[in-house]
TrEMBL record:
<dbReference type="GO" id="GO:0032259">
    <property type="term" value="P:methylation"/>
</dbReference>
<dbReference type="InterPro" id="IPR007848">
    <property type="entry name" value="Small_mtfrase_dom"/>
</dbReference>
<dbReference type="InterPro" id="IPR050320">
    <property type="entry name" value="N5-glutamine_MTase"/>
</dbReference>
<dbReference type="InterPro" id="IPR029063">
    <property type="entry name" value="SAM-dependent_MTases_sf"/>
</dbReference>
<feature type="domain" description="Methyltransferase small">
    <location>
        <begin position="154"/>
        <end position="295"/>
    </location>
</feature>
<protein>
    <submittedName>
        <fullName>SAM-dependent methyltransferase</fullName>
    </submittedName>
</protein>
<dbReference type="Pfam" id="PF05175">
    <property type="entry name" value="MTS"/>
</dbReference>
<dbReference type="GO" id="GO:0008168">
    <property type="term" value="F:methyltransferase activity"/>
</dbReference>
<keyword id="KW-0489">Methyltransferase</keyword>
<keyword id="KW-0808">Transferase</keyword>
Length: 354
């Protein structure tokens, strides 16, 4: 997830989500009405704000209200609505001077947060206010950390790495009996929270993989903070070389398109990662070992995948279910009907032919 930049009027365009600088950019201040700002942004015009920072935040909130809502609509309609809303709100822009200094009245100090994401800067730039607020919020979480009861410690997520604020899946890994303690693979480690839980439970060696360098840097920092020296990180699409008696994977839960890099932790187009994990698992799981696949049934509740399709995928990959651990969500924004499951899988003695 590398920041993208282009030059515009002497200011560099900064983004981590792959959007382009609008072709037309006009300068606005607190004299613009929310209706006019929304009309321009909806038509594709970028709005470069010069004025009070808090007034810019208020304008962003007013524009958001004008986007309306898709509550109660089908999942795909809601996703399209959120994508359009993000495009419109992303066109309210703010300047950054050299060193990521925000030159707006009452503007916060964003230098450290922006340097973490974009690297050092000696040139002036433009950035979406909505994205800047996300960067600042992520920096605050990185500094504060997320309390993980299973560790008795905090995990510190980086910007662009999915934060373990919903801890049910962590609890599942913390309470399920370990089949072995000599080696485990953690596939798609993210912040490294599950690898850390395994090490905390006494697994002697953990290999944590991810295909995002930003995630691996985050995981390594967390392992160092926690003092876990027996965890190795590897950049890989799925598995590291070799076999292990325990393989843990918490893949993206929803088989749908990701609109931003961060959403790749939640959305898995066509269930690509899930299918790759299941198809390759028999070649990496030790005979008699267990794979712990952690999935919410939210995809089933939204009509994106059926339970039968999931069980068929297990069967097709030559896997059988040894058991399962279920947990209900605790997060107030989660669907109360949702159940998160840790599926305990193993390979069949006689694999099914292709």
């Amino acid at each position: 997830m590398n920041p993208q930049s282009t030059m515009d009027g002497g200011r560099r365009w900064l983004t981590t989500v792959g959007t382009n600088l609008p072709r037309t950019v006009v300068t606005i201040d607190d004299r613009v009405t929310a209706d006019e700002a929304f009309r321009l942004a909806a038509a594709g015009t970028g709005l470069a704000w010069h004025g009070d920072f808090h007034a810019a935040r208020n304008l962003l909130a007013a524009m958001s209200r004008r986007c309306g809502t898709a509550a109660g609509k089908p999942f795909r309609v809601q996703r399209d609505h959120r994508a359009r809303r993000a495009r419109i709100l992303g066109r309210l822009l703010v300047p950054l001077d050299s060193g990521h200094v925000l030159p707006l009245r009452r503007g916060p100090d964003v230098r450290e947060a922006c340097t973490e994401v974009f690297g050092p800067s000696e040139t002036a730039s433009l950035v979406s206010l909505r994205e800047l607020l996300g960067i600042v919020g992520a920096h605050e979480w990185r500094v504060k950390g997320v309390e993980i009861p299973a560790l008795g410690a905090k995990i510190h997520p980086h910007h662009g790495v999915f934060s373990p604020v919903r801890g049910e899946y962590v609890d599942l890994v913390a309470r399920t009996p370990l089949p072995a303690k000599e080696l485990a693979f953690d596939i798609g480690t993210g912040t490294g929270v599950l690898a850390a839980v395994l090490a905390h439970r006494g697994v002697e060696r953990v290999v944590a993989t991810d295909n995002e360098p930003r995630a691996l840097a985050c995981a390594r920092e967390n392992f160092q903070r926690l003092g876990f020296t027996g965890i190795e990180t590897r950049q890989s699409d799925v598995f590291p070389p070799g076999r292990a008696p325990l393989i843990v994977c918490n893949p993206p839960w929803l088989p749908a398109r990701a609109n931003t890099p961060l959403e790749r932790a939640v959305y898995d187009p066509g269930s690509r990662m899930l299918k790759a994990f299941l198809d390759r698992l028999p070649r990496h799981l030790e005979p008699g070992g267990e794979a712990w696949l952690i999935l919410s049934d939210l995809a089933e509740l939204l009509g994106l995948r059926t339970r039968g399709e999931l069980l068929t995928a297990f069967e097709r990959s030559g896997l059988e279910v040894l058991g399962r651990e279920d947990i209900r969500p605790r997060h107030p924004r989660a669907d109360a009907r949702e159940v998160t499951t840790l599926w305990r899988l193993t390979t069949r003695a006689t694999p099914v032919p292709d």
